[in-house]
Amino acid sequence: MKIGSVIKKCRKLRNMTQLQVSALADVSESYLSLIEKDKRQPTLSNLESIADALQIPVSILVFLAAKQESISEITDTQIESLTKTIYSMIEA
């Protein structure tokens, strides 16, 4: 999954609009929209701001966006289980 798709999913799980997140992250709504569509890659600074707005650690966003084959230390089943658990925690 790409980082923009993860941001969008987390934003929706938090029941937040693009306008709310963009205002809290101090980025334009149109820029956030492009990120969520994976048409732009956020800078590290913007990623940190967006993560703060979503109240999710950057490391969690990066983990969720990581390709499963790049996480060789754990099995696909473990990754899937962790991902589901993380999304459940975000939604709560």
From TrEMBL:
Cited InterPro entries: Cro/C1-type_HTH, Lambda_DNA-bd_dom_sf, TransReg_Diox_bact_type
Domain of life the protein comes from: Bacteria
Keywords, ordered alphabetically: DNA-binding
Gene3D superfamilies (alphabetical): lambda repressor-like DNA-binding domains
Signal peptide boundaries: none
Transmembrane segments: none
Keyword hit for Lipid biosynthesis: no
Domain HTH cro/C1-type: 7-61
Entry protein name: Helix-turn-helix domain-containing protein
Organism of origin: Shewanella electrodiphila
